[in-house]
DNA sequence: CGGTGGGTTGAGGTATTTCAAGGCTCGTGG
DNA sequence: CCACGAGCCTTGAAATACCTCAACCCACCG
C-alpha cells in the first residue's frame, strides 16, 4: 500500500510535465495509493505534501456546518493539487476511485523556490491556473442555468479525459451536483434532456460512459 | 485628470504595504483618476498595468453573452488588482465611484521577480490571496441561501471598510446582487429582514450607510 | 420642477429542490 | 447459483426559494 520509492527520471518526466522545471531538480518523491472514498487531507490541516494524480481521480471540497458541500475541483490523471501558499489546506480532498498519487514534500518545494526562480515561476503558474479555474467557476455558480452548468461540465471533462471518443466519468451524480451547485436530480434531468436532444449518448448501463454526439450544440449551451 | 507623477518613497510605503518588498525596489508608478462608471480595463485585453486603489472603489466582473454579470471582487482603498500571470485580463474592471489609482507596469513587476525572490514571493502571495477569496466565494455561490450570502457580504465589507462603526458602501444593490449571484430585489429583501431582526440599521436616507448592531447574530447566519 | 437613478415592497411565476418511488448492477453470503 | 441489500440513477409530483414584473417612494440635479 505504501510504496516509498524514489522515482527514476523517466517516471518523473512522464508525470511531472506540468511542473516544468521541477523535473530537473532533486525533489523527494514517493508514491501512495488511496482507496475509493479515502481522505487524502482535511480542510484546515497543515499542508505537508503536494499531490499529483498518477492514476484515478480525486475531489476537493468545502463543507458547511449542516453538511452542504461545494466541490471546488476534480483532480484527474496528471493533475497536481494540494499546493498551498500558506501552510494550511483550504479544502478536504478524497479519492473518488482507487487512486495512485505521487507525493512531494511541500516545504522542499517552497525551499527550492527560494533560490531557483524557475521553480518559483512554476509555483506561481500553478496557483494562477487554479485561480483562473475558480474565477470561471464563480461565473458558472453565480449566473448559469442548470443546463448551462451541466453543458460546461461535460465540455470540461471532455477536454480533460476523453479517450477514443468516450468520456468515462469517475464521479457519481452527487459529486457532479456538488461541483455545479445543483442537486443530483437536477443533474440527472439535465443529462436526460441532452440525451433527448441527441447531443450525447450513454454507453453500457453504467451511465458513466458518455459519448458526445454534437459538441457544437453543447458549446452553444455553454455561452 | 491624468496626473503622471513619479510618487515619492513616502507615498509608496504608505500605499504599497501589501506588496511588501516592492516598496523597496525601483518601480515606475503613476497615478490616474477614473470617473464613476469608467472602464479601467476590459476582459481579454492585454494586461499592461497592475492597479492599486488609493481612494474610491472598483468592481471586477465577467459577462455572459446575454448580459448576465458576475462580479468576482470589489476593490477598496489599498487593494491591488489586475495582476495577471498570463498577459491577459480575465475580468472587466470599472470604477464604482470616482476613484484614484496607482498604476504599475506589469512587465516591470514580472521582470524584477526574475531576479528578486522577495518580489517573486509577493506575486505568489497576492495570487494566493485572490485564489483563497475565489475559493470561499465558490462555496457562497454554490451552496448558501440568499440570507447567508448577504450576511457574508456584510461581514466581509465590515471587515474591510468599517470606520467609526459605520460601513459606507460604495456599491449599489445591483452590484451587490451580481457579486452574490442574486437579484437586487432579493438583496434588498434580505437587508430588510436583517433590519427587522435588529441586526443592522441604516443611517440617513441613502441606504448605503449601514451600522451593524449585532455582529454575533450576523456571524451565526454565515456559518 | 420634471426626470433620472437608486431603493423598497408586493404579487405572481418559475427553475430548482425536495420528497418519493422504482429500476438496474454488483458484490456477498446463504 | 440465486437471493438480497446497498449504491447509484432516473423519473414524477409537490413544495419553495428566488426571480420577474410592476408600482411606488425618495433624493438629487440640471
What would your notes on this structure say?
Two copies of one chain form a homodimer. The first copy, chain A, folds into two domains: about 130 residues, Jelly Rolls (Sandwich); about 80 residues, Orthogonal Bundle (Arc Repressor Mutant, subunit A), CATH 1.10.10. Chain A is elongated, with a radius of gyration of 18 Å. Chain A has seven helices and twelve strands. In chain A, α2 packs across α3, α4 crosses α7 and α5 crosses α6. Chain A is α+β, with helices and mostly antiparallel strands and about 220 residues long. Chain A binds a DNA duplex (30 and 30 nucleotides) through α6.
In brief:
The structure is a homodimer of 223-residue chains. Chain A is an alpha+beta fold. Helices cover 40% and strands 24% of the residues of chain A.
* SS field, number of helical segments of chain A: 7
Beta-strand portion of chain A reads 15-25%
> What is the CATH domain class of the largest domain in chain A?
Mainly Beta
Q: Based on DSSP secondary structure assignment, what is the total number of beta strands of chain A?
A: 12
Main sheet strand line-up of chain A: 1-8-3-6
Please identify the structural class of chain A as seen in this structure.
Answer: alpha+beta
CATH-defined architecture of the largest domain in chain A: Sandwich
Summed up, the domain count of chain A is: 2
- CATH topology of the largest domain in chain A, by name, is Jelly Rolls
The residue fraction in helices of chain A comes out at 25-40%
Distance between the termini of chain A: 45 Å
- Oligomer state equals homodimer
Amino acid at each position: 500500500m505504501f510504496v516509498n520509492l524514489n522515482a527514476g527520471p523517466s517516471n518523473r518526466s512522464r508525470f511531472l510535465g506540468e511542473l516544468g522545471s521541477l523535473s530537473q531538480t532533486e525533489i523527494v518523491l514517493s508514491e501512495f495509493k488511496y482507496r475509493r472514498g479515502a481522505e487524502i487531507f482535511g480542510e484546515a490541516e497543515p499542508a505537508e505534501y503536494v499531490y499529483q494524480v498518477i492514476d484515478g481521480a480525486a475531489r476537493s471540497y468545502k463543507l458547511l456546518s449542516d453538511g452542504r458541500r461545494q466541490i471546488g475541483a476534480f483532480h484527474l490523471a496528471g493533475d497536481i493539487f494540494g499546493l498551498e501558499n500558506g501552510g494550511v489546506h483550504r479544502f478536504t480532498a478524497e479519492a473518488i476511485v482507487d487512486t495512485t498519487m505521487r507525493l512531494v514534500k511541500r516545504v522542499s518545494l517552497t525551499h527550492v523556490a527560494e533560490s531557483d526562480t524557475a521553480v518559483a515561476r512554476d509555483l506561481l503558474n500553478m496557483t494562477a491556473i487554479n485561480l483562473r479555474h475558480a474565477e470561471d467557476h464563480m461565473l458558472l455558480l453565480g449566473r448559469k442555468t442548470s443546463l448551462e452548468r451541466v453543458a460546461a461540465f461535460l465540455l470540461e471533462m471532455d477536454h480533460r479525459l476523453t479517450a477514443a471518443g468516450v468520456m468515462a466519468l469517475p464521479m457519481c451524480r452527487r459529486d457532479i451536483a456538488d461541483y455545479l451547485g445543483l442537486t443530483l436530480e437536477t443533474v440527472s434531468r439535465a443529462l436526460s434532456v441532452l440525451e433527448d436532444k441527441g447531443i450525447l449518448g450513454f454507453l453500457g448501463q453504467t451511465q458513466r460512459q458518455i459519448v458526445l454526439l454534437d459538441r457544437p450544440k453543447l458549446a452553444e449551451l455553454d455561452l
